[in-house]
Amino acid sequence: MTQRGAWEADELVESRWREVDAFVSATVASDDEALAAAVAAAAAAGLPEIQVTPAQGKLLHLLARSIGARTMLEFGTLGGYSTIWLARALAGDGRIVTLEASPEYAEVARANVDRAGVGERVEIRVGPALESLPGLGQDGPASYDLVFIDADKANTPAYCEWALPRVRPGGLIVADNVVRGGVLADAESDDEATVAQRRLHEMLAAAPGVEATTIQTVGAKGYDGFTLALVG
Ligand code: SAH
Ligand code: DHB
Ligand code: MG
Asked: Is the CB–ligand 1 distance for residue 126 below 6 Å?
């Protein structure tokens, strides 16, 4: 570890990450009007600008499409940006439930998903996710095709543990912010979120029939990563 912290990349390198993200979102993974409007409305309402990038949103969309997902669960709605990408991937009359702690954020998200024309496919449940889970209608085995975990990082393992028996064979669990500037490698860390993301990996490694990996990412949101788990 260097003194500045291993995660602080050179400014020039970081601006390059941004430029590449800009190119990717100007070509293959572009926001359309509704996605751009969702980002603008969230910023105008003062929400933190921590939604997935267009490239990451498109990845979620492609993953969901690839498995023909009809039922999805999202932890952490924010302004509904990732929700829109996922909802647009839903097959047939599919539905996504998304869990958000903040009523203010949920209100912004509701307007955004409605504007995007996917409102009827999106159910937003307001409150801490752990409190919403017992009330979900579909809580039996194989209820979900895809679960996206992107809320409070300390609870990622708890969300994953809840999701594992509820994702159908061939379904996916995706978790955001698992690398967080590289601290995932820090076995001595007492940071709650770091400990939690390391625990997530140990849990997935030990889960029978589950195959997972983590891909480190760079881009407009810095150095981070996604974990992908295929449930057997
Ligand atoms: N998935 C969004 C970004 C989510 S940011 C996107 O990419 O567009 C993380 C969100 O989790 C924030 O909106 C935050 O309010 C929410 N959150 C934090 N703690 C939570 C909890 N305990 N339960 C549900 N949501 C929570
Ligand atoms: C934060 C949360 C996220 O989901 C993210 O992608 C980036 C940052 C945050 O809480 O700071
Ligand atoms: Mg995130």
From this structure: no
Distance, in Å, from the CA atom of 58 to the CA atom of 176, rounded to the nearest integer, reads: 14
Answer for the pair 176, 148: CB distance below 8 angstroms, yes or no: yes
Cα–chain-centroid distance for residue 35? Answer: 16
Instruction: Answer whether 105 contacts ligand 1 (Cβ < 6 A).
Output: yes
CA atoms within 13 A on the CB side of 138: 20
Rounded distance from Cα 132 to ligand 3 centre (Å)? 19
Contact 177, 219 (CB under 8 A): no
Domain spans of the chain?
A: 3-231
Other CB atoms closer than 10 Å to residue 137's CB: what's the count? 9
Pick the CATH number of 3-231 from 3.40.50.300, 3.40.50.150, 3.60.20.10, 3.40.630.30: 3.40.50.150
**65-114 confidence digits (pLDDT tens):** 999 999 999 999 999 999 999 999 999 999 999 999 999 999 999 999 99
Q: What is the reported pTM?
A: 0.96
